[in-house]
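User: Run a structure prediction on this.
Assistant: Running it now.
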Amino acid sequence: MTSAHAITGTAGAVCPYCGWPDDAEPFQLVSRHSTAAGSTVWTRCGCGSLQVRAVDGRGVRVVTRSRPPAGVPPTRACGTRG
């Protein structure tokens, strides 16, 4: 089971699990959906954390994210150490 953390995307925000910056790549695009204000983009961080990003006139921000799946090692590209 994963849990979501409400985190507003501010400049300099990073993934709390691996430390990779929210505004950097690589991340995997899972899906994109149009909304009245812009779009909602589901992405997966290199560590496996699923993120929901709001894209609108204010920019792009992570509005929620899950924990990485248990037992799945993160990718080195995500900025993890090891």
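The first strand starts at residue 4 and ends at 5.
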